[in-house]
Design goal:
Layout lengths: L4 H4 L12 H13 L5 E6 L5 H13 L13 H8 L5 E5 L6 H11 L9 E6 L6 H12 L5 E7 L7 H4 L3 E5 L4 H14 L3 E2 L1 H11 L3 H11 L5 E2 L1 H8 L4 H12 L3 H13 L4 H20 L11 H13 L2 H18 L5 H14 L8 H19 L47 E2 L3 H11 L1 H7 L3 E5 L2 E5 L5 H5 L2 H15 L4 E5 L10 H22 L1
Parallel strand pairs: 1-4, 1-5, 2-3, 3-4, 6-7, 10-11
Antiparallel strand pairs: 8-9, 9-10
Helix pairs in contact: 5-6, 8-9, 9-10, 9-11, 10-11, 12-13, 12-14, 12-15, 13-17, 14-15, 14-16, 16-17, 19-20, 19-22
């Protein structure tokens, strides 16, 4: 019968456990010195070796021929525990055995001495699932168990355990396994199983596993369904994510502000049954790597990838301003949170891609220059506080080497006093009438302020009394343009088109005259008729 890789290659000794040397070394030292605790607590994320270490510890305390704290895995006790024939090692799933009655049964069994082993070992997995009553029932036994009993508790959510439980256990925190460790382990297993696994595929599996060796081996097992030669494309298909080339295609479209290319790539991945959450997660990780490549000179230890991919990341990061990378990460983080409750995840992702492409981004002021400017401002403020006038710094001029000094500027003739016979030069303005360049202004506005462009797309404009008057029936347009951001964008678009600035106004839509409904008109006529009839009856 076929056995899954994560079961087949489960560690059998402490030396086989990957990525947890701080745990395995301590446990081995305790076993060698005979300082065995009565209760252990293993905590950490999934697939990091908690249950494996618990089983190794259960074998090591009962092994007939231990070696340097490790079980021999050859004696009848070790083989019996591995095969499940030794009933003195009990593994309990607290997710389904979490009641007070289950813990009471456990306490009664703990009083019996072991049959074949030295210690009766209870491994309680997912211990945070126990009820409050079950925790209370376990407290006394956990604090003062019989001499032949050892408790090993394992959990992924340590914050759910009562403090009374935590204080009675020796705690070990299992860390996420480093991606390089997972990559090396995958390459070793692939060699033993006679499987061809490319370096890029191993790196991708390690990155997707997110520190869990069991997750990495499970994904590796799924990839084997397509053959014994595994590359990045097969890993991406098995995990339902985009591959590295597609991630770079996304970032290229975002850097070039190419809306159609980004949306077309998203549609392609969606048609290939790509998981939207996985695509968003991979995009977030991709832009995280771009950010690290942008700000860290030697980032080999911070980004897990091949040398070729690392160089691609550095080249792409050089094309994107730092502010845009930060904005992209903020948008993707918000999108990942929104996807959890989104009605249509595809639409949410496409809206995020449009926002990413629309981001402008600008390089921030370098730190040394910013520090110098702050120092100059502080000096000027100090001088003003002391009552001393502060001279403005002289502008610096850059003169090319080996160039003669520029000649002094010619003296300008004295300006003639202005009289009534010499009127001032007229300001730049346009004659009253339709504003013919309005379409060009809107075209420029599209790059500055897309929301305002959408509102003004169906409007017209005219020049009246040296002002640009916008004709629109939208009653909210005036308040919208009054915003500082939108007014500056519109003024900039007008100035870029005409070469000078103009005052801008909005013709407010007149409120329609109130009209009397036909029903009210009929009611008034009936009232007048009734009043006339009453007056006639009185006269008679």
């Amino acid at each position: 019968m076929y056995q899954a890789l994560y079961r087949k290659w489960r560690p059998q000794t402490f030396d086989d456990v990957y990525g947890q040397p701080h745990v395995t070394k301590t446990l081995k030292n305790e076993l060698q010195r005979g300082r065995i605790s009565h209760a252990y607590l293993f905590t950490g994320s999934r697939g990091t070796g908690k249950t494996s270490c618990a089983k190794i510890l259960a074998k090591a305390v009962n092994c007939l021929h231990p070696a340097d704290g490790n079980p021999c895995n050859q004696c009848e006790i070790c083989r019996g525990i591995d095969g499940g024939s030794i009933l003195d090692v009990i593994e309990i799933d607290a997710a389904s055995n979490n009641s007070v009655d289950n813990i009471r049964d456990l306490r009664e069994e703990a009083n019996f001495t072991p049959v074949n082993t030295t210690y009766r070992v209870y491994i309680i997995d997912e211990v945070h699932m126990l009820s409050i009553g079950a925790f209370n029932a376990l407290l006394k036994t956990l604090e003062e168990p019989p001499a032949h009993v050892i408790f090993i508790l394992a959990t992924t959510e340590i914050h759910k355990l009562p403090a009374t439980i935590l204080s009675r256990c020796q705690r070990f925190d299992f860390k996420r396994i480093d991606a390089q460790e997972i990559t090396r382990r995958l390459q070793y297993i692939a060699g033993q199983e006679q499987i061809t696994l490319t370096d890029g595929a191993a790196h991708l599996i390690a990155r997707i596993a997110d520190g869990g060796m069991r997750d990495a081996l499970s994904l590796f097992d799924r990839c084997l369904a397509s053959g014994s030669e595994i590359d990045e494309a097969q890993v991406s298909a098995a995990a339902g994510i985009a591959d590295t080339a597609q991630m770079f295609a996304f970032s290229q479209a975002i850097a070039a502000r190419d809306f159609p290319a980004a949306l077309a790539l998203s549609a392609k991945l969606y048609a290939e049954s790509g998981d939207v959450k996985s695509i968003c997660s991979e995009l977030t990780l991709h832009f995280r790597n771009l950010l690290i490549a942008k700000v860290v000179k030697n980032c080999d230890g911070l980004i897990i990838c091949s040398a070729e991919e690392l160089q691609q990341l550095k080249d792409r990061a050089a094309e994107l301003p730092l502010s845009k990378l930060l904005d992209c990460l903020a948008v993707l983080t918000d999108t990942a949170a929104t996807l959890k409750t989104a009605v249509n995840q595809r639409v949410t992702l496409e809206a995020a891609l449009v926002r990413l492409c629309a981001l402008q981004g600008a390089d921030v002021t370098p730190a040394p220059e910013l520090t110098a400017r702050l120092a100059a401002l502080e000096a000027a403020i100090s001088a003003l506080s002391a009552g001393q006038p502060q001279a403005a710094p002289a502008p610096t001029e850059t003169v090319a080497a080996d160039q003669p000094d520029p000649p002094p500027p010619p003296e300008a003739p004295p300006a003639a006093p202005q009289t009534s016979a010499q009127p001032a030069a007229p300001a730049q303005t346009l004659p009253d009438g339709p504003f013919e360049a309005w379409a060009e202004v809107l075209d420029r506005l599209k790059t500055y302020d897309m929301p305002l462009f959408g509102i003004l797309a169906e409007t017209s404009a005219q020049v009246r009394s040296s002002r640009l008057l916008i004709n629109s029936d939208n009653p909210t347009l005036y308040d919208f343009i009054c915003s500082d951001t939108h007014s500056r964008a519109l003024s900039r678009a007008v100035a870029d088109t005409l070469g000078f600035r103009m005052k801008i106004a909005v013709s407010k839509a007149e409120k329609p005259k109130e009209t009397v409904s036909p029903l009210e008109n009929l009611k008034s006529k009936i009232n007048v008729f009734n009043q006339d009839q009453a007056n006639t009856d009185t006269e008679e």
